[in-house]
Amino acid sequence: MENTPANSSRRDFIKTATQATAGLSVLSGIHIPYVHAQGDDTISVALVGCGGRGTGAASNMMGVKQRTRLVAMADVQENRLEASFNGLSGKHPDRFSVSADTKFIGFDAYKKAIDMLKPNDIVILATPPAFRWVQFQYAIDKGVNVFMEKPICVDAPSGRRMLELGKKAEAKGLKVGVGLMCRHCRVRGELFDRIQQGEIGDIILGRAYRLQGPVGTCFTKPRDVATDPNELIYQIKNFHSFLWASGGAFSDFNIHNIDEICWMKNDFPIEAKATGGRTERGDYVDQNFDHYSVEYTFRDGSKFWLEGRNAMKTHNEFASYVHGSKGMAVVSTAGHFPSKAMTFKGQNKNPKEIIWRGKQPEPNPYDLEWQDLVDAITNGKPYNEVERGAMASLVTVMGRMSAHTGQLVTFDQLMAHDHEFAPNVDKLTMDGAAPLIADASGKYPIPLPGVNGLYEYVVPKA
Ligand SMILES: NC(=O)c1ccc[n+]([C@@H]2O[C@H](COP(=O)([O-])OP(=O)(O)OC[C@H]3O[C@@H](n4cnc5c(N)ncnc54)[C@H](O)[C@@H]3O)[C@@H](O)[C@H]2O)c1
């Protein structure tokens, strides 16, 4: 059942609440809706998807130098919203004005949260990416700015839709940030400038590694109806396991490193040739491979090699490198930040051959991406990261599709592809069916390279 806020009580309250009192009552544990006074330039923000990253993004938003304030929250899981509410209200009471009647639960909750905003305000879209185009479309219609988490699509049709929506947002002058925060890292930005100026020659190879244990929800056990009575919510809770929800572990985890290499190359690849497989899967029922290896090709013929793995007791590495005709560069060393970016003469990371080393300590790029977005809003500067975010998401899909199908996949083939994993994602309801149905043994269709042409999986006919 969808939750309906007590709109009447909100309206009554707004009549009497003043800016002076709004938010202060957080200290006494009562959360009062925020009301704009005339001339007040505070940017109100709504959070849609109150999980780990949504809560983190809201916290980053509350750290910008301009006045910002969280006024509404939406989720499909009440316990996630409440945990986020408690964490954020305690950490940032001065920027928190979410009240009982601005907390919304359900698949239409995003509409109610966005309806609390006015032009110039921001909605944070931090659900699994399946819902991105649906919620972005509504935000554009309502004329509000957007911060959306990566990836921003899970398949070619949703990627094409995001590219179109990005243009629509631009035409309306909306500011849109995409959570590929490494693009806002100042040290990586300096590295990009140095590479473009030829410090390491022409880029001929990129290498990226996201080799880690089974993190997030990429390995999932069969649903236990006693603890997970709702199939759809079970799939959303375990979104890394379901291609319709997240694009799988491949899209969710590898996109940052893929985007870093494409940034440094200043281009996106036109082709992917990949392998991958499931080794020790036990009774896990997710749709992921546990290891992937992709050779991407750029239009000038240069290559980018990506390795992704989720497996226990194996070599861990989370890093990106580019090699040029005169030297090599570290783009990221171990995770998202600090990047510890460096350039070297020659192809080895030889400490005696360092050309340049990024200044330390590096500011947190999760804070920088917010400061940059809010600066653009307050200064009225164009700001739209959708095309770049959609391209990064799509070339990620291209690599995954190649591994899952066992075929060489070109970007043109991808862009013409019709496999939409969850075409009815905008119509899901709490009591309705999930986009993917398990078979009698609780298993879901998995990718079978060489079996289904360019289709990553096929749902058996009932
Ligand atoms: N930029 C980064 O470094 C980074 C890091 C982590 C996650 N992310 C991205 O953030 C997104 C969320 O990841 P997370 O780790 O926070 O997941 P999470 O499961 O912790 O949070 C997702 C939340 O969205 C809610 N939700 C799902 N469907 C919804 C819907 N239709 N409407 C409203 N709420 C809905 C879930 O109930 C959950 O509370 C993903 O796209 C992920 O890739 C980005």
TrEMBL record:
PROSITE patterns on file: TAT
Top-level lineage group: Bacteria
Gene3D superfamilies linked to this entry: Dihydrodipicolinate Reductase, domain 2, NAD(P)-binding Rossmann-like Domain
Signal peptide annotation: none
Alphabetized Pfam families for the sequence: GFO_IDH_MocA (PF01408)
Domain spans labelled Gfo/Idh/MocA-like oxidoreductase N-terminal: 43-172
Molecular function, one GO term: nucleotide binding
UniProt-recorded name of the protein: Streptomycin biosynthesis protein StrI
Naturally occurring in which organism (per UniProt): Brevifollis gellanilyticus
